[in-house]
Amino acid sequence: MLKLLQLLPKTCSPLTTRALYAGAVDGGLLRHAFRTDDANKDDLPLLDDSISAATALWKKEEVLSRLKNLLNCTHEQSEKLYKANRKALRVFAARLLTDNIELLRANGIDDKFIYENPRVLSTPTDDLAKKLKLLRELPAVEDCKMLTPFLKASLKAIERMVAVAKQETIPGGNRINYLSERTGTEVPVVIKFFATNIRVYRIALDKFIANLDICLAHLEPAHVVRHLSVLAYATSSIRERLQALKNSPLETIKPWMVRVPDIALGKSFEAVIEKGRQPVFKDSVTGTWFETYVLKRMESLLGCTEETSRAIYDKCKGSVHLVDNIEFLLEKGVVAEVIIQHAPMLTAKREDLHQKVATLETLQCLRNLNDVVPLCVLKAYQLKKIVNNLNNEQLGPVNTNRIYYFADSTGFKPGEVTEQFARRTFMFRIPKDSFLANLKLFLEHMNREDILADLWAFKYSPGIVAERIARAKEVRGKKLMPWMVRCPDVVLEKSLQLTKESGALLGENETIVEYFCKRLGFDREVANSIFIKAPSVRNVRITKVKKVIDYLLDELDYTPNDIALNPRILMHSLQTTKKRMAQLKEIGCRPKSLIIVCKSQRQYDLFVKEWIDAKERKTKVQQYG
Q1: End of a domain among 206, 232, 252?
Q2: Which of 394, 357, 364 is nearest to 378 (CA)?
Q3: How many domains does the chain have?
Q4: pLDDT digit string (tens) for 479-509?
Q5: Which residues contact 502 (CB under 8 A, 6 or more apart)?
Q6: How confident is the model at residue 277 (pLDDT cuts 50, 70, 90)?
Q7: Domain span at residue 597?
């Protein structure tokens, strides 16, 4: 890019060069405010300030801010939307997300659908618009908004579905309405499962109706709706398999039983005859559950989505005990949300999980099994030892244990406390007196969220904790953190010293924005625009900011406007900045823009090399001119 700029003729108009650059909106406005007449003569041209070019690349903070403003959502929801579309942002401009949100809203689609299906935003805007247009063309649809689940399908699949629906004649106007009438299921529910099995529209209409008639004659209508893919099998195969299942020792017949291999079905019948129980469909070679069955079974048991069941399956690495353990925990009264949240405990063998739950049930003062289930991630012998220690310990005037005492004192849910204690099992080994004394000290001087997130500080004696808190409080006031208790003494002294220096610079109530206004001579609006352009500057120590500003203004004679145009310079190492500025001075270069000093080492070296080459070429021209 730099080389291209050097090759441009001096007579090139500003409009021509302007098209070569893309910048941020806030940065452009700020740059426009401080641009001088000789800006075009700069050895490193600045980015353009056009609003139309500002949509090329946004930082994560900018994307989250725009999502939050568009959807009026929480930070967690906007973070979830960003993570779900992170891969798409490597290929497409970030504006794709906001354009798609506006497009969906313009078509009357609720924000709830966007939260539940965030990856829809990764679809190119033109393709998304085509999908919406095609879905409106689907015949016999009262409300097109109900068809939003189909947006997750490919454009080609939707085109095929609409084309087939227009050509065929079927009661109800389309297959969705026909299936809803035949099964007595609400249309939105049918659409939900139809969208995940859109290939059903590849089936010939006669075959679709014939297979549906056969399945409804032998299966529950609700089961047929959940397993529409079974309608794609040959009619003779479905009829033959259902007849075999009808004459089998099975108590109930499900659609997925039509799809399992014959060898698995035969072995399951043998197990039923020998043991008198429902079959367990396993692979004849590996002896593991069929993945499809496990996923569908988890969806049914936990009432979760296909994505959630897949996430649990992957997290547990396809454990053969998944379904057994879920059924057991549900029988014990553990709610589905807790099972989903603590899925790793499902990898244990069924016998081990039985033993762990039995051990937890012996816990005295147990209010609800859901409160302590996260402990099932531990080994059986560890759990038994912890329960014994808790039962032999009495806390408070009302007999309780450490989990409930900590939860009641901090206001957290017992399940949240148990989850952290399961990760930090030393919390069960700390002496009772130290546990109570430290908890009291922490609650007096720190936020409860910080205490639960950093439990390592409980390992220190109350005397050390009190001494550290007293030292830190003298300097930091109320801004105390648990790490100040457990960090080395040198680190604490360094942190307190930096806090003193920052306090001396900022004063008692002055903020970093006010410091910028006073030090650089800007009004508050301009100072805020600097932080909008480079939000990370807020996290830089004020002492470092002062040193960088002093160096740039006092030693290098740069102006506050130069700093405002490139605030990233404040986040860079002062040592590196001095080294680069000295090197540039040696080769006779004084950049009017500080942006080159902020570049990566590779980009900086390239700039230096091209500068030297250009200087040598100019010297030769002068010699032979």
Answers
A1: 206
A2: 357
A3: 2
A4: 788 888 888 878 877 777 766 666 655 555 4
A5: 541, 542, 543
A6: very low
A7: 506-624
Rounded to an integer, what distance in angstroms lies between the CA atom of residue 210 and that of residue 204?
Answer: 10
The answer to the question of residue 152 being in a domain is yes
235 falls within a domain:
no
The residue out of 173, 206, 239 marking a domain boundary is 206
Predicted model pTM = 0.46
Q: Decide if pLDDT at 249 tops 80.
A: no
What distance, in Å, lies between the first and last C-alpha atoms of the chain? 29
Identify the three-state secondary structure at position 282. Answer: strand
Cα–Cα distances (Å) from 171 to 103, 144, 175, 204, in that order, read 33, 19, 8, 15
- What is the rounded CA–CA span in Å between residue 445 and residue 325? 43
Tokens of 251: 């108590």
DSSP states of 187-232: HHHHHHHHHHTGGGGGS-HHHHHHHHHHHHHHS-HHHHHHTGGGGG
In this structure, are residues 30 and 529 in contact, taking their beta carbons and an 8 Å threshold?
A: yes
Nearest to 356 by CA among 336, 338, 374: 374
Residue 315 has pLDDT above 80, yes or no: yes
Which has the closest alpha carbon to 548: 516, 508, 525, 526? 516
Neighbour tally for 241: CB within 10 Å = 20
Cα distances (angstroms) measured from residue 92 to each of 98, 101, 199, 336, 360:
12, 15, 29, 37, 51
Q: How many C-alpha atoms does 165 have within 13 Å on its Cβ side?
A: 25
Distance (Å) of CA 543 to CA 492, 504, 515, 567, 595: 17, 10, 11, 16, 22
Say if 565 falls within a structural domain. yes
> By mean pLDDT, which of 70-79, 95-104, 267-276 is the weakest?
267-276
CB of 174 closer than 8 Å to CB of 141: yes
Residue 344 CA to residue 376 CA, distance in Å, equals 9
Q: Are 359 and 380 in contact (CB under 8 A)?
A: yes
Residues linked to residue 289 through DSSP beta bridges, in sequence order: 282
Is 225 within a domain?
no
* Mean local confidence (pLDDT), 181-200: 88
